[in-house]
Structures are given as structure tokens and as C-alpha cells.
Amino acid sequence: MPTGLENDTLENAKIKLKARETNFRHLEAISGMGSWEVDLSTYDTLWSDQTYKIYGYEIEAVKPTFELFLSHLLPEYIDIVKSKIHEATKSKEVGSLTCKIKKVGGEIATVSLNGQVLFDEDGNPDKLLGTTQDITKELSIKQKMEELYKLIEYSSNEVYILSLETLKYLYVNKGATQALGYSLEEFLTMHVKDVNPFLKNRDIARLKAILLETSHTLNRSVHRRKDGSLYHVQSYLHTLTYAGESAYVIFDTDISQLVDLETQQKKQARILEYIHDSVISTDTEGKITNWNRGSTQLFNYSDKEMIGQTISKIYDPQNEYSLQELFSMLQTKGNLDIEANMLKKDQSRLICDISLSISKDEDGNIDSYVGYIQDISIQKETQLLLEEQTQKLKYQAHHDALTGLPNRALFKDRLSQSIVTAKRNREKFALLFIDLDQFKKINDSLGHHVGDEVLIEAAKRIRSTIREDDSLARLGGDEFTIILKNIQSLQSASVVAQKIIAIMKEPINVAIHNLYVSSSIGISIYPDDATSDLNLVKYADAAMYKAKDEGRSNYQFYSSSMTAFAFEHVVMESSLRVAIKEEQFVVYFQPQYEGETNTILGMEALVRWDHPSLGLVSPSKFIPIAEETGLIIDIDKIVMKKAMAQFAKWYSQGFNPGVLSLNLAMKQLNEKDFLQYLKKAMESQKFQPNWLELEVTEGQVMNNPEAAIEKLNSIHSMGIEIAIDDFGTGYSSLSYLKKLPLDKLKIDQSFIRDIPDDCDDMAITKAIIALGKSLNLKLIAEGVETQAQKDFVLQNGCELIQGYIYSPPIPADEIEELLKN
């Protein structure tokens, strides 16, 4: 039985034990380390409070078991732990293991397990005691530190840590050793001046003062490598404590390329500043940011006057492109070379050659424009003088100095070109060779100065007889040539020849002399007479001598048959003039029918020449001559007057002849007094405007559609209908066709003639009818002669018909019988 003393000792021991256990629990809480115990015979398990917390349990919330411990291990660690425990039962060593567990909330943690097996008196494994510590945060910190160390150690920048007191290196990274060529061991024995040879004590003092005040600063310096070479660095310095002493860290970046670039830019800036030409920079809004001395010399503005101003102050607004357009093109292309006018301070203009380019920032965005400007005013003036001189020399080489006409050289070139064009377009042209009769006598008797005046006047007169597109040349002496392009018939050449002969018969006044000079003209035709330039000239020359042999003051074709034809033309023209004077023309009428009802709706007036000795002359023989000579205007007036008088008479007698269709030549329409004449003719005959329809041919209208639209609108406004005759044979533009004041289309008889045997004509006729319908125009088919032709046009929507199926053109008395019936 224990004594009182023994009881006191036992109680003291328990108290001490309890106190020790409490202290141990406090230590566990402080260290985050939990303890545990496993009975190896029963596997009964005890956990400390901290162990519960590590696994995510409330204290004593569950009964700890070995199986519970194993369940928290990630699967890949279970066998490893069991193996470790098995090894521990054979050794008295403390075993350690790092593994991962899953806490109650699902969080994965890394723990450090330390354990040792206790053996009983017989040497058998009795208990397993150990500790568990959550080292997740420590591992994370360690990993970050390792990453940071690697980042610094292997950075391409140079990183140094120096003692603030001794300025010796405490740490350098691999970037520093590689950049300078020293080993780490060498660096740790070196002073900062060993690497920075130009660093002065005053520089060190200044940097230390800044670091004491702000703890960081930037600085540029020069490093010297182990091999003695130098390079520039940008340094960032920051104070810190390292290995227990005050130090500062330096991050150095090699800026050698940047320094070289800056040096180069400074050199360029100096060059640009003193260069003679103007160099100007602006921002993207056009405000001037740089203005060199060359700009001041060129424009007379100082840099103070111009920096901050917009470039528009010196850019002429009358240039081809506005500044906004230039900037837009520059942004698209990147650079521009232009020629433009610029304005000096006194507003005088300079012609400048300008090279423009863009400048971009580090992000690739345009931040400025740069212009290189040279004054080329003098060069431009010189260039213009050279061009004028060149043109003058070229003109002199190809033109006659006296008359200004093309000379022999230019004539040959134009003749060759005319042959090429005529061959390609399958056209004809005439070559006229003109010689002035009796000119030599004037030259010999009155002198060359008078002869020159005669030649100048002769050139003017001959020029007045031909078209703008024709070519007149002086070959030399009193010889002239004319190329009459694209003639439609031989009459065209003979008409011009007659005009020249007539105009040259008129006296030429030179000083006090009235001189008379006639002309002999020879004519050759391409390709009828020849296809080569040499033969055309030779044949025209031969024809000219033939004209001289015939008594001069006349013209001859190279072909005698052509000459006879031309003289027949002259006789016909003379007879026509008499016919107009005596009004030998009569009007025939061809009725126009509504095809479904066979009712007369109108009639076309057609001219016939009732020659006193030849009888009725076919229009095909005299109309072409009348059109060439302009006599068609007088003939049309006679036909208009007689046809209107006849129609007015029929209406007064109670007949209904419908609408009178009159052919209107564009030459007549172009007469200034035509509208006035038309109004007077209708008034004198008591003829109503709604009885009249004027027909114009498609080809004539399309020669000058704008003028035709204006004049036909004036006629249409009077209540007179307008029809297009021979539609489909010309080259109508639909854009003009819809602008013309049209009421009717006349389908040309050339498309009707071969229906129904010609599929193409049938298709064209259908297309014309469809076009007329789409434009809401009336349609009439000309030249309908058979029932099949009539049926075709009616079936396709053309209701009006004119042709021999009903009646040929007949005189008024026969028309009257039709109207009576």
C-alpha cells in the first residue's frame, strides 16, 4: 500500500505529465504538426487534435482507424505506405515519406509522414508512432522560389547584387557571366568599377544619394567585357537586404543597338537640318512637327513660324489632289512621289517634286508623315521651253513655212495612214492633185513676194471647201493635194473639185493688183484606181495634166469613165436647179393601212421629178445628187407645200386621208428658219398640226443625237408626230432612242422583203416590234408585198402596213378614188 509520500510523488508526476502533454499540444498547434499512434497487434489508432485538423475533421468527430488513414491517401500512395510500414517493423530507424492526401472537403494536400516502430521486451513490433505535417504551402513557396531563381538566373538581362558598403558583387546571374565573359567565382572577387570603367566616384555618390531617397533609379553606363570590348547598358537599380547586409540589385539591358540608332538619328537630323532641300514632318492631322533650314530657305518661313501650323499653309489648294486625298493615298501605299505647286511666304508659287512617306510607332500604327521637297520650277521652265522648241521644230519639219499646210513629208505619212484605215474599214477615199494655172507668169512678172501672197490666199480658199477630217497639203511651188476621206460616191469628189474651181476663179487682191488664177485638178480613187500610195499620186498627177490638156480650170478623174460620170453629175445638178426654180416636182402618195380592218390611216408623200423632156425621173437618180449639193432642202419644201395643200383640200371636201407622212432631211431640220417656215406653210394651207407626221431616218438622227433631240422636241411640242424611218438599218443607241420625242417606228423594208424565207429577218423584225411595244410606240411595216408578210407582222403585233400589197405610190387623183371608195 503506497504511503502518503509516494502518493504525493505520483500526483506530482501526473501533473508534470499533464503539463508536458499540454505543452506538446501547443507545440503541435504552433508547428502545424499532428501526432498519431497505431497498436500493431490490434491496429487501434490514436490521433492528436492537430492530426484531426490536417485531415479536415473536427476534433474527435470520428474514431480514427488505420483504414480511415489509408482511405485519405491518394490511390497511388497506398501500397507505398504499406511497404514503408512493413520495412519499419524490421528496423528501429525513423522512416519518412512525402505523399498526397485528400481531405474531407476534397482538397488535395501534400503531407510529410515521419514514423518509428517501438518493440516490446521480446523484440516484437508493438506500436507505430509518428507525425503528420501539411507541407503544401511550403512546397508551393519552394517551387515559386525555384522558378524565380531560374527566371533570374537564366534571364537574358544581366542581374547583379552588390554590397551597398563595399560595392563588391555578392551575386551575378548567368546572363551577366555570358555577357561579360567572367566566371561567377571571378565576379565574387570584383568591384563594380572593374565592369564599369567610366564610373566616377561622383557618379557613385549621386546614385547612392538617389537610392537612399527613393530606393530605386535608372542609369545608363558602359560595360567592359573580359576581352576589353565595350557596350552600352540601361540599368535599373533597387535597394534590398541580401545575406544580412545592405545591398542593391541591378538589372542591366544591352542597349548598344539603340545607342547606335540614336547616334545615327542624330547624324541624320544634323544632315537634314543643314541639307539644302526642304524636309518637313507632320503628325497625322497635318500639323508640322519638324521644319529644317532647307524649308526656311525654300519657303521663307522660320521654324518658329511653322512648327504647330498645318501643312495647308504652304500647299496650293488648286493642286490636282487635296491634302486629305494625299494623306488617304499615302496611308494606303506607304509612299508617294508627286509633282505639286507649293506657296512661299509671299504667296508666290513653286513647282516642287515631293516624296512623301509614313512613319509608324512600335505597334505599327502611323504616327507621322515625312515630306522631302525639291524646287523644280527652273527645271520645269526649261523642260517646257525644250518641249515648245521640239514641237516647233517638229512642226517646221512637217509643215510648209509659207502656208502652214502639211508639207510633202507629212502628206506621204497621212496618205499611208489613209490607205491603212480605208483598207481596214473597207472605205474609199479620193486623192486630188491641184495645180494653179498661170501662176508662173504672176511669179515671173510681179515677183515672188506677190506669188507668195497668191499661194497663201489659194491655200485658205481650198481649205474652206473641204471637211475638217480631210487633209490638205502643199507639195511645193503651186502644187496642192487633198485626201478626201471615206467618200460615199464619186460625186463627193467631183463636188469638192467644182467648189475649188469656182472659188479659185474669183479675183485675188494683192496690193494694187487684181489677179486671176484658175486651177486644174486630177483625181484618183482608192481602191478603184490603185492601192499603193505611189500609184495614187502618179495617177492623180496624170489626171491633173489631162485636165490642163482639156483647157485648164477643170477636173479629170484618172479613169475616163469616172470623168464622164462626173460630168453627167454636173448636168444633173444644173437640171435640178432649173427644176426647183420651175417646180417641176409632183407628189405621189402611198397609203398606210390598219392591217386588221384594211382601213386607210394615213399616207406617205413621195417626190417625183416630172422632167419636161425625159418624163418622170426616178428618185434614185436625183435624190443622192440633191442631198450632196444641198438642193434636197428646196425640194423638200416644194413637196411639203404641195402635199399639205392636197391634204387640206381633201379634208375640206369631206374625205379622211388620215395623217400625212413627210420625209424630213436633217439638213432641212438644221436650217435656222425651218420651224418658222413650217408654221407659215401650215398656216397658209390651213393645215392642222395633228394631220402631220415628220419622218427622220435613224442614221441621220444618230449623227448628232443631242442636237436632234432638242430640235425634234420643238416640233413635237407643236402637236406634230415624229417617226423614225428605216429603223434597224442604223446604229441606234437605246439611251438616245428613249430620249427622242418619238411616236412611231417604221420597220425598214429590207427586213420585210425576205419574210418568211429568212429566219434572221424574221427574228430582227420580232425584236424591233418588241422594242417598239416596250417604248409604247406605234409600229408600221414598210414594203409589205405578200399575204405571208402581212400575216407575219400582224401576228407579231405590228398593226400598220405600207406596201404594194395595198398600193404602190400613186398620184393624187388615184388616191382620191381610193378615198371615195
Topology:
Layout (H helix, E strand, L loop, with lengths): L3 H28 L1 E7 L5 E3 L1 H7 L10 H7 L2 H14 L6 E8 L5 E12 L5 E10 L1 H18 L4 E6 L5 E4 L1 H7 L3 H4 L4 H4 L5 H14 L1 E9 L5 E13 L2 E10 L1 H19 L3 E5 L5 E4 L1 H7 L3 H4 L16 H11 L1 E9 L5 E12 L5 E10 L1 H22 L9 H18 L3 E8 L2 H8 L1 H16 L7 E6 L2 E6 L5 H16 L2 E3 L2 E3 L3 E8 L6 H17 L5 E3 L2 H23 L2 E10 L4 E13 L3 E3 L1 H11 L2 H21 L6 E5 L2 H4 L4 H12 L6 E6 H6 L1 H12 L4 E7 L6 H4 L6 E4 L1 H4 L6 H16 L3 E5 L4 H9 L4 E3 L9 H9 L1
Parallel strand pairs: 21-22, 24-26, 26-27, 27-28, 28-29, 29-30, 30-31
Antiparallel strand pairs: 1-2, 1-5, 3-4, 4-5, 6-7, 6-10, 8-9, 9-10, 11-12, 11-15, 13-14, 14-15, 16-18, 16-21, 17-18, 19-20, 23-24, 23-31, 24-25
Explain what this protein looks like in three dimensions.
The structure is a single chain. With 821 residues, the chain is α+β, with helices and mostly antiparallel strands. It contains 31 helices and 31 strands. Helix 16 runs antiparallel to helix 17 and helix 20 crosses helix 21. The termini are far apart.
Report helical residue fraction.
40-55%
Shape: elongated
On the 0-100 scale, what is the average pLDDT?
85
Give me the count of strands. Answer: 31
Number of helices: 31
In short:
With 821 residues, the protein is of the alpha+beta class. Helix content is 45%, strand content 26%.
What characteristics describe this protein?
31 helices, 31 strands, alpha+beta, eight-stranded mixed barrel, 821 residues
